[in-house]
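Regression test case RT-17, inverse folding.

Input:
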């Protein structure tokens, strides 16, 4: 049975990932850590600032963890607002987590992102291996992170694995500071107010995925037979690509009076414009059987049902 330590466990992905890991591997085998205190955990929890390399290593050692899932990071819009902080935290935290994995011989996962691509990357059906010259600090962090994870694999034999996540949509923990966050906010506002003002312009396509598919992808990749992996850091994964009017049309099938307006945020719009419209996940499908269960309409149905139960 795996013994997994998760950083950033109270974040958008981390908070659902720890529940899924605890269901899969047993609550006692998953150590959740975060910079914030939490008193409502259903398993082991420790406060950890990922910049504190010694504490990270000591916690992993005490817990006898054999896997680290490093989720703590600043997202694209926050990183653009605070570039130096993003460099220090995103890269510093990653190096500490990789060093912990190297010293303790642990398997390693960290997410990359569609943000690892830039304006010179082919926009449609973006290949697994292609030009990566991002123009955002987040993108610079993600490309550097992918290379560093590959370096730790080749140089030190650390079993590093990663995916390039698209925008992730969930009704559990809201994201913060991302460019794709509009595609989560829209569901909350649809249920609460019946209307939404999008900070992303009409016609802007980005890849997206429903959180249950993202969590399953992490588990499937980490369980994959290593000899099958030609790529490691990081695999393109996606479930759908849409623009704001298309998500609004999907919502209108359930809430016919829903209204969408636009008030574009130039910073987040320029980040979105630098990212692909749709990426190609063939390598992930072929090398470890990646498959998404949800499309736009099935995700919309579940998001609206769950948020209606919670918010009304
Ligand atoms: C963001 O918008 O910053 C993230 C991402 C796509 O990596 N959701």
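Golden output:
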């Amino acid at each position: 049975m795996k013994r997994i330590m998760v950083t950033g466990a109270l974040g958008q992905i981390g908070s659902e990932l720890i529940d899924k890991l605890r269901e899969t591997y047993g609550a006692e085998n998953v150590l959740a850590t975060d910079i914030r205190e939490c008193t409502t955990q259903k398993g082991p929890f420790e406060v950890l600032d990922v910049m504190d390399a010694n504490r990270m290593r000591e916690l992993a050692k005490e817990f006898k963890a054999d896997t680290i899932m490093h989720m703590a990071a600043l997202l694209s819009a926050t990183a653009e607002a605070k570039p130096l902080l993003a460099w220090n935290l995103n890269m510093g935290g990653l190096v500490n987590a990789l060093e912990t994995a190297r010293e303790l011989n642990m398997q390693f996962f960290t997410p990359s992102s569609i943000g690892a691509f830039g304006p010179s990357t082919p926009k449609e059906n973006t290949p697994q291996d292609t030009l990566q010259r991002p123009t955002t600090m987040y993108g610079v962090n993600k490309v550097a992170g992918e290379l560093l994870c590959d370096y730790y694999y080749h140089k030190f034999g650390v079993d590093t694995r990663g995916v390039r996540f698209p925008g992730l949509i969930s009704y559990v923990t809201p994201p913060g500071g991302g460019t794709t966050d509009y595609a989560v906010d829209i569901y909350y506002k649809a249920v609460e107010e019946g209307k939404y003002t999008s900070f992303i312009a009409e016609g802007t396509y980005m890849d997206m995925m429903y959180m249950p598919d993202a969590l399953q992808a992490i588990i499937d990749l980490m369980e994959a037979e290593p000899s099958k992996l030609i790529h490691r850091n990081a695999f393109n994964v996606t479930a759908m690509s849409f623009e704001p009017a298309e998500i609004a049309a999907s919502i209108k099938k359930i809430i016919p009076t829903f209204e969408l307006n636009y008030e574009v945020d130039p910073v987040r719009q320029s980040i979105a414009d630098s990212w692909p419209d749709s990426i190609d996940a063939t390598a992930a499908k072929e090398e470890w059987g990646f498959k998404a269960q949800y499309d736009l309409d099935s995700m919309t149905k579940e998001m609206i049902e769950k948020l209606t139960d919670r918010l009304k």
